[in-house]
Amino acid sequence: MKKIFSVIALCVLLGMMCLSAVSCGSRNDEIDSALLKGEYNKDLAGTTLKVYNWGEYISDGQEGSLDVNAAFEKLTGIKVVYSTYDDNETMYSDLVSGANYYDIIIPSDYMIERLIREDRLETVDVKKLSNYNLIDDQYKNLYFDPDNAYSVPYNVGMVGLIYNTSMVEGSIDSWEALWDEKYSGNILTFNNPRDAFALAQLILGQDVNTTDHGNWDAAAELLKKQSPVLQARVMDEVFNKMEGSNAALAPYYAGDYLTMKENNPDLAFVYPKEGVNIFCDSVCIPKGCQNYEAAMLYMNFLMEPEVALANAEMICYASPNTAVVSHEDYTYKDNEILYPSKEDMPAVQWFHDMDADTLAYYEALWVEVLNS
Description:
Blueprint: H1 7-14, H2 19-23, E1 48-54, H3 68-76, E2 79-85, H4 88-97, E3 104-105, H5 109-117, E4 152-164, E5 187-190, H6 193-203, H7 213-226, E6 230-234, H8 238-243, E7 249-253, H9 254-263, E8 267-270, E9 276-283, H10 292-302, H11 305-315, H12 322-325, E10 348-350, H13 356-370
Parallel strand pairs: 1-2, 1-3, 5-6, 9-10
Antiparallel strand pairs: 4-7, 4-8, 4-9
């Protein structure tokens, strides 16, 4: 992410003592201990914590922002080994292959539901997380973890349609724009089956969690009809393409649109009339982790008000942390895209984990779509 903060906001956010450090673009690994709500020590100093997260999904010190992992390392002496993935399915495949182990992962709701069902997550005693009280109650006891036994909310958001006003005629209000032949060669879509199928399902008026094979067949046929007008199927590549005006239309996560717009003011965003996917990404500890206590400490650290605020400013997703939403210096506290009013809230559907038969069926259809 390439968020740019004003010097004043940066000082408030990070407690910077030296403005010259910001102007030089240095990475900040300092956090004022007086602002910390949890207790941290160096009892686990010298150990390693392996974190597996989405790409561009943490405040990492760019443009003088807080380097969350470096700050955690400095505070605890625990070395963070950080790696990223593009989608839930990639993370899942890597996790179940056994080729690597991780102490922290940050999957989405439906994937957490699957991991719980397959007994691939460690339980988390939230009573031992002193900052858990900062999580808004509306993001607790969600369908995928009804007892809050395996996950701690990290970010929430919805999928919408990004379009370049200099390349698109008029305003857009429907997912059908992604099938419009007049934009052939300038249309992007998701490079993962769940998100891509959802676009077709929403157009067709389907439940995105349908188990009816006929519904999946119909959605697949619609996706095949889209293939000739596509420029590419993408995930994080969408940033460069949309910021550089190398494509006209792309579905993507609302928070990422705000980041892209900073670098390309021609971009606009809409929640299409057919409805959208709503999601919650949460912090989990997978079975096979090697440093459980450090993982719990890291979970608590991510909920620290100043850390969560730095992440919310950098990532631009809606925050489940009440200390962020109520913070007077939070840039997006009144943003209508991240926090729409009840009247402006689009129709939403959550993804749920699918039974094995449906999962195998739509994954086979996805191969057909990719080859169409």
